[in-house]
Amino acid sequence: MTITFPHMGRIYIPVKALFDDLGVPVVVPPPVSKRTLEIGTRISPEMACLPMKINLGNYIESMERGADTIVLTGSCGPCRFGYYGIVEQEILRDQGYEMDVVILDAPGRDPRPLLKQIQRISGSSPWTKIIRAFLNASKIVERVDELADILLRKRPRELKRGESDELQSRFEREVLKCRGSKEMLDFIAVFKEKADSIPERRDASPLRIGLVGEIYTLIEPYVNLNIENKLGSLGVEVHRGITAADWVKTHLSFDLKFKRERKLKLKKCGNYLDLCIGGHAWETIASTVHYADTGLDGVIQILPFGCMPEIVAESILPAISRERGFPVMTLTVDELTGEAGYMTRLEAFVDLLSQKKGKEYEQA
Amino acid sequence: MKIGIPRALLYSIYFPLWKVFFMELGHEVILSNHTNQEILNNGVKICVDDACLPIKIFHGHVTDLIGRVDAILIPRLISIRPEEYICPKFIGLPEMIRYSVPGSPELLVMDYNAYSSEEKGYEGMYRLGRELGSPHSSVKHALNKAGLRQAAYFREMEKGFHPMEIMKRMNHPSERYNTWYKDSFCTNAGLPSKMSAKNSKGTIGLIGHPYLLYDRYINMNICNKLAARGYKIRFPENSTQEKVDGACSRYPKKLFWSYGKRLLGAGLSMMESREISGLILLTSFGCGIDAFIDELLIRANHREFGIPLTTITLDEHTGQAGFDTRLEAFIDMMEWRSRYDNHISPHGAHLYSGQGPV
Ligand code: SF4
Ligand code: SF4
After folding, report:
1. What pTM was estimated for this model as a whole?
2. What are the phi and psi torsion angles at B4 (to 5°)?
3. Under CATH, which number does the domain A206-364 receive?
4. Is residue A61 within 8 Å of A29, Cβ to Cβ?
5. B128: CA distance to ligand 2 center in Å?
6. Which of A242, B194, B247, B252 is 20 to 30 A from A191 via CA?
7. Percentage of chain A surpassing pLDDT 70?
């Protein structure tokens, strides 16, 4: 059994550590590329979500490198994510790929199927070992996100342009050489220190923009055309409405404090949206309200074409923007999204915000 | 109070429930007009671009009611069966309307959420009834009556009748609610009344969401066109829930979209029964649910059944001519094959045809 899994931003780092710890061979799919997307698009239904197309590309590229078992998480609606696994399985089967697909579904009334699945992909390790490996992996998720946060803060402030980006690429190049969670954690710690010590300009007062929207699109740089770095290079401090660590804490952990705070934040946007409609649309609305309240300069929503919950959010956002005088822009991406047009829109939005900020500054 | 009901989305399925409920509570129910060009244009104009056609059209129907009613009913169909949903957009529909439709009167948001149990489903209706000022006992009574009416309606559909036929038969002078039959969607469904089994060439399965199948304007009058070529039609609503559930059990994971499941299950059981000569999947551009459901149907058919199948995608730019060509070509292919080609494995061009909107 050689395991692989779909890419989603930097989630491959903790996942690799997890299987290393369990002693299960794992293939990290090659970074998402044009080829990945082409493979996925060719075999997926045209109207499938973009994330699913890329998942399929990941599987096939991993299989070319010897993987035979796919592990992914599921959910029970209302959105399509919960049924990715089944549709993917059908597609792979018809394409003649013999892959085992293991779907880790959130446990319903009976947790046993989930436990069985976990044991199956853990190479029958004892439970204590499995639990320890999972705990370490979730620690890595958090550390990786912390590192990303530092870089987000540094990018608009760095003295030497491009230093943060460079550190990030070095990190991503080298992190896969680590084996197991311990090595990984040490490695991340070293880079956190390096990131922290990137020298800053003293006079910087960057614009602050919140990123909200569909989680996969937010997290996977290939799909969002590396929006975090692009905004950073435009001198913007980026705030992320939802991160991989948030997702793990919401769905896979017992962090009650985090869950309480999340609830509170969600409740605060109650007059706009007061229930979960699937995906992360509720977070999109809640984060936007939160960012407006906490004085950010604007929000960008990103969604893949046809994303059902985010379309609902998209139609609510203009109201928030209107009522609070808070700039919001929506970017829809699909497999044809071109770099140039995208960059133009980002630049125009950033211009708009800095003009607005300038005016407010004069008035004050 | 004059309550407006948009003649869109699942109105074609739940109209009896809603109408009887509000009438029993002493309100007047007014429907928006049948979908027309103006409604479509309005919907396209005010709704976000990325939305699917049926949602845009719902927006148009809401604007159509403005100025004619005191309040507009916006159903929030979160879940119509335990542990299932319909589609994320159905859950967020009231918010989409509230923040996109300018100048609308009061919106009556009616939740329907049977996720934890069937009985719980009615709680939202009960709440709304009370908010509208009716006492506990009348609301209960109205719910009861409305529920019975709805159940009768479902039973008739499962017997294989098209909604229009049901309405016709039920449209008897002794009927207290007969006005709504006259007035209801079915006159718009476009099914010709005379379709005797004798002179029909066969049956075509028509798979799609109710708001595509039972709205003649959106579906380019497909039912009449099929009938004119001599075919009877089977709709997903004609399958019992047991059949649907049974057919879907082949998949290792429970489907959690009620209509997605109905479309898939009905389609599979039509194919399994071998009683259809062809299958048409009618879908709207940008429908997230159909993207998966149609894929599963096409793959199952490809592997096991080999029944002539085509997908027709509708969007706001769909033109009559292109649609007709597509439909005619499919029927021709189907008939040609049944004459000359019965034994040949039916792979080929038609299988994935019709991917782009027409
Ligand atoms: S949230 Fe969007 S991208 Fe995710 S499954 Fe749903 S439709 Fe697809
Ligand atoms: S099921 Fe499809 S057509 Fe219906 S509202 Fe949802 S996305 Fe639109």
Report:
1. 0.91
2. -95, 135
3. 3.40.50.11900
4. yes
5. 25
6. A242
7. 99
